[in-house]
């Protein structure tokens, strides 16, 4: 984590990113990453390899675990597709790269923030798979508070850079899930 944080700091310093001045302070990104890692990696690993969280254990029924496994696999595939569709436009922090084009194909044809959607689905799957009130729900509870802060910042940045093209795109897509289409 520390190595990654230092790498992000130097990448930002060297970056010619246009969104650089609109980013939250460096500490916010680092805190967000650390908190999410706590829920995604550290607490589940503590649950799986120690007895420290056993006080919060419960039994997961098979009819919950199997759909949880399928949802987890789906979310990992969705995350992979998101990275594939983004290609060189992906960044670990909020920025628009010089000459970047708006991605509106692949999964982005339907959803503006599929990476966050994949994280959310994975967090739900984790809760369905880990029979522990702390480790199972940790990623979901630690991930959700960042969405209301991060997504509007990202959308403002994209709208400032892409203008009308992004506003039109927003009308055609859902934020985290595909929009409901009305028929008839």
Task: Supply the key terms.
mainly alpha, Four Helix Bundle (Hemerythrin (Met), subunit A), 0% strand, elongated
What does this structure look like?
- The protein is mostly helical and 184 residues long.
- It has a domain at 62-90 and 98-178: Four Helix Bundle (Hemerythrin (Met), subunit A) (Up-down Bundle), CATH 1.20.120.
- The protein contains 7 helices and no strands.
- It has helices at 2-14, 26-49, 62-86, 114-129, 133-143, 147-162, 164-172.
- Residues 1-24 have low confidence and may be disordered.
Q: How would you briefly describe this protein structure?
A:
By secondary structure, the protein is mainly alpha-helical. The protein has a domain of 110 residues: Up-down Bundle (Four Helix Bundle (Hemerythrin (Met), subunit A)), CATH 1.20.120.1630. It has seven helices and no strands.
Query: Which secondary-structure class do the elements indicate?
Result: mainly alpha
CATH topology of the domain at 62-90 and 98-178: Four Helix Bundle (Hemerythrin (Met), subunit A)
DSSP summary, beta strand count:
0
Shape: elongated
What's the level 1 CATH class of the domain at 62-90 and 98-178?
Mainly Alpha
**Which percent range fits the helix content?**
55-70%
Second-tier CATH architecture of the domain at 62-90 and 98-178:
Up-down Bundle
Number of helical segments?
7
Mean pLDDT across all amino acids: 86
Uncertain segments are 1-24
Distance between the termini: 52 Å
Order of helices and strands: HHHHHHH
Task: Provide the β-strand percentage band.
Answer: under 5%
Biggest sheet character: none
Integer-rounded radius of gyration: 18 Å
